[in-house]
């Protein structure tokens, strides 16, 4: 399996797998219940992860013309 595919699985595991572990309301982070903060955090992390995947994908590299 290529590292790009593993990076693509991280957001899936973070959002869907993490929900079972962070299903709490009492700790508030930035004024939000912890589960809502977890989801917002992963939305941001998914954007970062997809940008890294885009940079690493050889199909997106342009050949330099001199």
TrEMBL record:
It comes from the Bacteria. Coiled coil: none annotated. Keywords: Membrane, Transmembrane, Transmembrane helix. InterPro entries: DUF3311 (IPR021741). Pfam families: DUF3311. The chain crosses the membrane at residues 6-23, 35-56. This is DUF3311 domain-containing protein. It comes from Streptomyces botrytidirepellens.
């Amino acid at each position: 399996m290529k590292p790009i595919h593993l990076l693509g699985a991280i957001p899936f595991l973070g959002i869907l797998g993490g929900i079972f572990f962070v299903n709490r309301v009492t700790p508030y982070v930035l004024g939000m219940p912890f589960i809502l903060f977890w989801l917002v955090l992963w939305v941001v992390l998914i954007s970062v992860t997809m940008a890294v995947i885009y940079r690493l994908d050889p199909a997106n590299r342009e050949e330099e013309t001199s």
